[in-house]
Amino acid sequence: RTTEEGSFFLGRTDCTLPDDFFFYADLYVILPVIYSVICAVGLTGNTAVIYMILKAPKMKTVTNMFILNLAIADDLFTLVLPINIAEHLLHHWPFGEVLCKVILSIDHYNIFSSIYFLTVMSIDRYLVVLATVRSKRMPYRTYRAAKIISLCVWVLVILIVMPFTVFASVYVGAHDGRKRCLLSFPSPESSWFKASRIYTLILGFAIPVSTICILYTTMLYRLRNMRLNSNAKALDKAKKKVTVMVFIVLAVCLFCWTPFHLSTIVALTTDLKTTPLLIGISYFITSLSYANSCLNPFLYAFLDDSFRKAFKKMLECRPA
After folding, report:
1. Where are the beta strands (DSSP E) in the chain?
2. For the whole model, what pTM was predicted?
């Protein structure tokens, strides 16, 4: 969101279309349906994951602690998604300044939280593989340590999102008088807008993705060398499954988020005119990034035996 209208890919949650497209019928009908499905599926799936990890003693592992926090972040986002739907249907923001700051903060928090928790999970997988290759134990890798690290990630992301909270405000349109919840930058507005997109691109994509790529490249290199020099397997079956699950969850996250960050590059390097086609592409990319918040529980169910068993147990109908 930004008060600078007419730019390509204005923002991830720019629910207010430019005036020429206020009654663009297809978007008006389709978007609430898509957002509602994402909200319902994401809220149900992530709440189930949170419930299972907290309730089942066997689910309290280091990896599952990071998955728990990832599910909490996704749940938090899906909880406020109905407000985005309401704004889209009403074509204005009726909820006040405080809620505007809260919603925009949570929305931007979702941009950073997923990739940062996945970065931490990738670091953890790298250390596990490295310890296995060297036949060493990891006494410091405990459930309590995972809790502390997760808390540090929450604090870090809150600090990263703080500038967006400061600039979030209710903006009244000069021409139509409509209230909009968006990022209201000082002059020169275009420079602040570009700075915010570069800030998000670097901290929300370039740094964490580069870190993850280096970790997995190094991990695969070490495993490959070990297979060449030894008949022993680098990982036992359980550790290998967890590593594969983390890798696939990461791949799906990148699939959902890469188009959004690529759109930032387009917004910074081109001056395309806003058209219905570009509006449609922008909302498709937004919906794809939103969808990541409801996909992870299905990945856990398909890729992890303990999650699959816990899901089945939870769905069993037992007589009183």
Report:
1. 168-172, 179-183
2. 0.82
